[in-house]
Amino acid sequence: MTRPRLVSGIAIGVLIVLLFVLPVLYVVMMAFENPQHFLNSPMTPGSPDVSNFSGAWSSADLGPELLNTVLYSVVAAAVAVALGLLIAFPIARRLLRGHSLLYTFLFVGLFLPLSIIPMYAEARTLGLFNNRIGYIILHVSQPGLPGLPLAVVLLTASLASVPLELDEAAWMEGASYLAYLVRVIVPLVRPALLIAFLYALLGVWNDIIGPTVLLADSGLAPVTKGVYSFFGTSESQFTLLAAAVVIVSLPVVLLFVASQRQINRATLVGGAVKG
Predict the structure, then answer these.
(1) What is the residue range of 138's domain?
(2) pLDDT of 18-62, one tens digit each?
(3) Residue 219 CB: number of other CB atoms within 10 A?
(4) Is the pLDDT of residue 273 over 50?
(5) Is residue 34 part of a domain?
(6) Contact, 137 vs 106, CB < 8 A?
(7) What's the total number of domains in the chain?
(8) What average pLDDT does the segment 77-100 reach?
(9) Helices and strands: H and E segment counts in the chain
(10) What's 95's DSSP letter?
(11) How many CB atoms lie within 10 A of CB 257?
(12) Most CB atoms closer than 10 Å: which of 60, 68, 259, 272?
């Protein structure tokens, strides 16, 4: 049994390297390449050229677009997680009639494709088109994006492991509903909250269809739309495009790397409290 497992593990590792690691490393290599050297020898690295990053930053106007993206992603993810907790707790505790139906509706929303035409019509009808608040609201509630539905599913599963005795003790002590959620429940489900926040943030950060459909003003555009427009005007400047992709991806990569320790610590704290 050991040999087949070893072979399958090696095969999976090779596939991961070929499909994920090598393409990422190649894009990073392109970002540091001299344009002329890359055209002459695209498969071999040359001397590092960091001017691609400054060129991409100014040519694609990434500064304002990054600020817009951070605003959209952080606010939409925070709202989705907060609403997810408020919805997940009564579902997990079965305090609502039809809680199973509501949970099923949100769970199915995870697998629905992003509906572009209804989303555009909704934005036009409700006055949410081409403004920051509307863009954030639509990214919180829109099925097909890992925002509110994923938060509810993750938090409902996590809340199922929280003892009911804590609820009863809080009611006996006269704790308010919101105070109990913030002071007791949030520390216990912190890993699920963090995971839901990160995936909701990633869904908004990587969205390219939403800003193309919902934002007509270039001053409101996030980095995905900016890089897409930059690609249309600089198709042959491969090294600048690679540098732009690295700049856009780096904040999310660093956030996920930094969050690994926080998730582990939160898991230990949650286990200690429940114990």
Answers:
(1) 61-274
(2) 888 888 898 899 999 988 888 888 888 888 888 889 988 988 889
(3) 9
(4) no
(5) no
(6) no
(7) 1
(8) 91
(9) 16, 0
(10) -
(11) 9
(12) 60
Is residue 40 in a domain?
no
C-alpha separations of 159 from 46, 54, 81, 163, 266 in Å: 53, 47, 14, 9, 15
pLDDT tens digits for range 123-161: 899 899 999 999 999 888 776 666 888 899 989 988 988
Residue 241 lies in a domain: yes
Within 8 A by CB and 6+ apart from 81, the residues are: 151, 193, 196, 197, 200
Q: From 110, 123, 151, 82, select the one nearest 211 (Cα to Cα).
A: 123
Long-range contacts (CB closer than 8 Å, 24 or more residues apart) made by 235-238: 237/35, 238/30, 238/35, 238/38
Residue 210 domain flag? yes
Q: Of the candidates 70, 148, 137, which has an alpha carbon nearest to the alpha carbon of residue 105?
A: 148
Long-range contacts of 8-15 (CB under 8 A, 24+ apart): none
Q: Which tokens is 58 given?
A: 């100014």
Q: Which residue has the tokens 């494709």?
A: 113
Alpha helices in 51-208 (DSSP H): 51-59, 62-92, 99-109, 116-126, 132-141, 148-159, 164-172, 177-180, 186-188, 190-205
CA atoms within 13 A on the CB side of 126: 14
